[in-house]
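User: Some background: our group keeps a shared notebook of sequences we're curious about, and every so often someone picks one and asks for a predicted structure to add to the entry. Today it's my turn. The entry only has the sequence so far, pasted here. Could you supply the structure so I can complete it?
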Amino acid sequence: MPYINSEFEEDFISDEELEDDSEALIQSRIKYQISTLVKVKRIIFWILYIIVFYFFASRNSGYLSFLESGIDRISGVKFLTGFLVLILCANIAGPIAGGIGALLGDLTYQLVTTKTIRMEFLLIAILMGVTAGVFRFDKEKTLKKMKVMHLFYSLVGAIIFSLGVLFLIAWVRNPGLNWSSELGSALQFNYFQFFLSEITSFLFLAPIIIAILDRVLRWASNDKGIAYKFFFTHHYEEQADHTIPIDIGGYQFFVCSRCSGTVSGILLMFFIDSVLFEYNNGVEIINPTIAFILSIVFTIPALSDWGTQKLLLRESNDTIRLLTGVFLGAAIHLLVLAVDQYVIGVIIVLVAYFGAFFTMFALGNRKLRRFIQKRINKTVSENEMDKNTKESKD
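Assistant: Of course. Here's the predicted structure to add to the notebook entry:
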């Protein structure tokens, strides 16, 4: 709902006009002619998400947990969840974001896990990211032209190449290595398990998940490929200016601007905190007092921006909503870090902010109801005047 001004107050919008305007508003949110700057922003967006998702997936199930050379590190078959997530993200984001995201994500994963850099693993991660990105998911091509199978065959080649790289690096690192020795047998076993885990974890799963994603988005979209659902946006179509479309393979998937910023803020702050925590050997670096103070400060911009809009005092924009959402998300995670030491303070802050939220929500709805009633009364009065004028002429 835009803020009230004299021009808006004078106009009356019928239900038919409102429906047409809603469709036009949604269409206006989609940028079909994308500038270079917008493309760069989208690539950076996907790189950040690939880094975060890849790190968390690899931390729980990554190759370093079982692929270290050594007799005592013989491992069983494991799912490489990190590589699976990398393949899926890169297949949606493209080769540039996939390659850079893989490089930075794997670099972070190695530094945090082992505090060393293994170039062969970086090479394999980049190879997987770029290979998946080359066959970027496209609703018009992926299934219709069987590019899922192209992705499958390319990953087969990438896996065979990665296995060759591992054996080559093992030979360089261990000159004169006898593969029939105890160490050689352990390396062969681990590398073979790596090969099997690649096959079982994402060679078949990635194409299947992409196909399922296409079916879900196709079901949620209209004939123009626009997926605008209240469940994901919590905004009606006439409030589409409060949402942003995310291009997923040609489907325009709409989400709330501030909520998407909030989710991003939570993920980024959790990622930063986790990296610092693990790199510092399990010692929390972020001071609870600083976290508590920042959680208060970071919440104010989002509450102020949302509140002034709810009170119909002004209209915000995508950039402000996204940025204030990011700060709000960071504040949520910081508040969690501070709760152990400042339980009472956190409760007071939550009560104060929720009190302000519901107060502005109630006042804004009251003001909106008055405005709508005024418009209705004005329309009824004008209709009666037109009717009386017509009767007097008759």
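Suggested note for the entry: Residues 22 and 238 are 5 Å apart (CA to CA). The chain has two domains: 6-29+229-380, 36-220.
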